[in-house]
Amino acid sequence: MDDLLGRTDGDTLLAGSFQIVDFTDVREAMGAAWPDICHAAQQIMAEELETGLDLGDSCQPAGDCIFVVCFADADKERSSVRAEAIADRIRARLADELPKVAGHVGVDRYVAEVDRRAVLDSPMPVAQALLQSLQAIRAEAGETDRGQSVSLINDTRVLFQPCWHRRTGSIGLNRSLLDPVVGRSILRQLRSTGDAAASLHSVAELDCAVFTKSVAAIHAVARRGVQPAAVVIPVQQSTLADLQTRNVYFHLIDALPPTYRRLVMFEIIPSPRRGGTDRLREVLEAVRGKAERVVLRVAPGDDRMIYMLSNLLWGVSIDLAELFPGNGLTPLRQLIRATQTLELQVIAFGTNTLAAMLAAEGADFNFVAGGAVHLICDAPRPQGRYNPHVGLGDTANPDSKRRVAVNAIPDGEAAGAGS
User: Fold this and answer.
1) Are 181 and 304 within one domain?
2) Is 0.85 topped by the overall pTM?
């Protein structure tokens, strides 16, 4: 690494760090096995870095499960893509080889240009000096990103999508949704930072904001002497997989009055890289300790996963907008059979056309939601008789002028804090 620093031209050098985060949180739980586990994790990181880095790159350990890298390629975008690919492989191996630990930790990577001369002139060992420079750059960038994220989160609105209970012919639930006007933009901006840990933290803050604003809306309706139908509040798996953000979110749940707690349900949205069923199970078990009714967002092909996790679920939710028009309900047949066998409730949303609504009715889903069923509301609807075949609910809700057309919402992306 010293040679690469010495022969690199220019005032800056492209460097990166790889770290297993939240590792110390499981140290006590591992007891005497900790040294072996830490060594195994460090070895996994070293092997994947050796495989994934180019010949001209240089890598050194900078602490327990921390590595720093000097990239020979000065193209930050290319090197960042390679760094994320390496981090993905480390995550996959941790989940496969250290499953008891993998559910409690994450793999963070960071790439930035550092001051080459400052690293060379530092009295610290090169690896430590490089890590310190990266941390300082990250902290400075984080202050700016943090202010932007807070502003975005504070400005967003939460709206509600009534869910029609097919068998009783009434409004049975409400789904919390991000404001369609700004929801997609917020999610894109929060996830656009090159700092994966900061991005996940911001999404967790958005989850918390959706929760608190949903509860505030329930309270506003209750103050008028009306009890709304239960509200399904979405939350990302990543928010609940991280121990720090999970504790913050659970603190909000613990603060709920008992009368409101009965009106709140949680929809867990799995991460794209959810790390297998074991990690999802751990999250669901934790949530079940706080709420009786937990819903899991699923897709066609997830029927095996549903069987494995059914004892922790009240129901599942599925986005029909991803299936219509075109392939209809054919991919859903196995999933439908699984939910019926396991007696799980099914919330089918994204029914934005008449054809989708009629197909959803025929599929025997318990709850159906979407533009063809009921328009989005700015407050949760109370339970009550409702016929989606009469207009779009205008006669059933005198406040319809204040609602936003659901057709403007890409349900699969704007439902909750990033679907």
Assistant:
1) yes
2) no
**Using CA atoms, how far apart are residues 18 and 45, in angstroms rounded to an integer?**
8
Is the residue at 96 inside a domain? yes
User: How many separate domains does the chain show?
Assistant: 2
Do 34 and 143 lie in one domain? The reply is: yes
pLDDT, tens digit (0-9, with 9 covering 90-100), for 186-240: 665 555 555 566 677 778 888 988 998 999 999 999 888 888 899 999 999 989 9
Closest CA to 177 of 360, 397, 374: 374
Instruction: Give the amino acid at 92.
Output: A
Question: In Å, what is the CA distance from 238 to each residue of 40, 109, 195, 273, 299?
Answer: 24, 16, 15, 9, 18
Q: Write out the residue range of the structural domain in which residue 365 sits.
A: 156-414
11 within 8 A of 115, measured Cβ to Cβ: yes
- How many CA atoms lie within 13 Å of 49's alpha carbon, on the beta-carbon side? 25
**Which of 312, 314, 306 minimizes the C-alpha distance to 288?**
312
Pull the structure tokens for residue 284. 């669901």
Q: Which two tokens stand for residue 114?
A: 């550092």
> Do 163 and 35 share a structural domain?
no
Q: CA angle, 168 as apex, 221 and 256 as ends, to 5°?
A: 30
pLDDT tens track for 376-405: 999 999 988 998 866 433 333 433 333 333
The answer to whether residues 183 and 299 belong to one domain is yes
Overall size of the chain counted in residues: 419
DSSP 267: E
Instruction: Output the six-digit token pair for 303.
Output: 């029927």
Examine residue 388 and state whether it is found in any structural domain, yes or no. Answer: yes
